[in-house]
Amino acid sequence: MAGVWQEQLDHFKAMIEKDIANGLYYGASVRVGRAGNLVFDETIGNAYADGKQPLTRDSVFSIFSATKAFTNVLTLRAIEMGRFALTTKVSDIIPEFTGSPRQDATFFHLLTHTSGWPGMWELKPGGYVGDFDETIATIIEVVQGAIEPGQRCDYQPLVNQALMGEALRRTDPKGRRSIRDIFREDLFEPLQMRDTAMGVRKDLQPRHVIPDMRGTLPVTNPGRTKPGPYGLYEEEEAEMPHVGCVSTADDMYRFTEMLRRGGELDGKRIISPRTLEVARQNWTGTMEAEMYRGLALMMGSKGYPAYIGLGFSLKGDTIVPSQYGTLTNVGTFGNNGAGSSLYWVDPVADVSFVCLTAGIVQEWENIKRFQRYSDTVAAAMT
Description:
It is a single chain. This protein is an alpha+beta fold. It has helices spanning 6-21, 67-80, 90-93, 107-112, 132-142, 159-170, 179-188, 249-260, 273-279, 290-298, 363-379; strands at 27-34, 37-45, 60-62, 197-198, 208-209, 245-247, 264-265, 268-269, 313-314, 333-337, 341-346, 351-358.
C-alpha cells in the first residue's frame, strides 16, 4: 500500500510474536491505520498464561485508565455545550467539595492532572469503588488538597475523572443519573462502539479477557459479587469513569479514528476540531509527572516532563521515555491503561494506533515495550 513500508510492519508483527514467546505478556490485538486505511490488523497470542484460549478479533479487554479518554472527551464536549468551562471551579458544580485549597481546582486542573492533591490509587484500603454515588461521597470526605492547584503535575489514577463524571451527571440536560447510560448514549452508540461498555455487560462476559495483574498494581480491587483481589474488573454494574470500561480493538480503533478525523466519524460529530486543537497542546510545560518521576528514579533513570494536554498524553518536543514513541511527530496524542492498553493519533503522519494486550506488564517495562512498538510503527510510514 502506498505510504506504508510493509516489511517494517511485518517486522512489527514478528516483534510482538517474540515478546509473547518470551513471556513478556500473553497476547495482543492491534490495529494501525494510515489516512483512514487499515494497514495492520492482527490478533496474536492468548488470553491467559496457560495458552489454551487464543485471543480472537472480538476479544473484550479491560482497558483500565484508557477509560479516562472517554470521560475526558465527554467533559470537553460538555464544555463546548456551555454546561461549565475550563475555568469553572469543581466546587461550583459540586458545592460539597469545599475547603482550601481543593475548592479552587478547576476543570482545567482536573484535565491536566495539576489539581493539587496527591495521586490516589484507592480512597479507603480495600474499598469498593464500583458504586459511583459511594465513590463521590468518599472523595468529598477524604480527598484534600496538598498544594495550590496548578503548581505540580501529579497523575490521578482515580479522583479527577470521578469528579468529571459527577459534573457530567449534575449538568446533564437530560437529567440522567447513570454514568453508564451517559457514556453509552453520548459516545458509544453514536460511534457504533457496540462491544464497549462501562462494566462488563452481560453479553460481553463470555468474550472478556479477565485481567491477570501479575503483581503489577500497588493495591487490590475487590468486587462485590465477583471473587478474588481484582474482582472489580469483572463486575457488570460497576460505574467507574476512571478505569471501568471494556472494549475491543476494533471499537477502540473507531474511537481513535474519530479523534484523527477531528472529532467526527461516519457523519457523527462528538467534539469540534477546534476543541481537539486546544486539547492537543502541551498545558503542563516542563512540569515533571510526579508518579513517573518516582518510577523512573526507582529504575535508575531520571524524571522527565509530563507532556499532558487537556486529558491527552502527548509526544513532547524532547526525547524522553514515552509509550507514544520517540519517532512519532511532536503532538502525537492518546491515552494508555495499566500495563496493557494504548491508543494514539499522529496528526502529522495521519496515523491511528491501537494495541490491547493480555497479561499486565510492569509499568516501566510497559513503557519500554510500547515505545518500541510506537517507534516501529512510526518508521513504517513513508
